Amino acid sequence: TKNCKDIIEKHIDFFKGLNDIKEVYVIGHSLSKVDYPYFEKVKKHCNAKWMIGYHSYDDMKRLIEFVNHLRLKDVTVFRT
């Protein structure tokens, strides 16, 4: 587990600086629920198109859960 709240607070300037980001690429990430708070903060600070890679069927299941959880609207999925 991670102390996401403290880590995010420590790096809040990074997240606040994402306003001009137009595309977010997620490649080789497990999309584990423990990392959701980081992705939620990214989404909050930028209105971007998300491109998310997957490798296996299990990756795709986590990807779908991730997209639904974050309520992402503009998503492109690709095989890695």
Overall helicity:
40-55%
Ends apart, CA distance between termini: 27 Å
Element string (H = helix, E = strand): HHEHEHE
Tell me about the largest β-sheet: 3 strands, parallel
Shape verdict: globular
Query: Structural class, from secondary structure content?
Result: alpha/beta
Strand order of the largest sheet: 1-2-3
Task: Determine Rg (CA atoms, Å).
Answer: 13 Å
Mean pLDDT, all residues = 96
Number of helices: 4
**Number of beta strands:** 3
**SS strand fraction:** 15-25%
Ranges with pLDDT <50 over ≥5 residues? Answer: none
What would you say this structure looks like, in words?
The protein is globular, with a radius of gyration of 13 Å. It has a 3-stranded parallel β-sheet with strand order 1-2-3, with helices on one face. The protein has 80 residues and is an alpha/beta fold. Strand 1, helix 3 and strand 2 (49-54) form a beta-alpha-beta unit. The mean pLDDT is 96. It has 4 helices and 3 strands; from the N terminus they run ααβαβαβ.
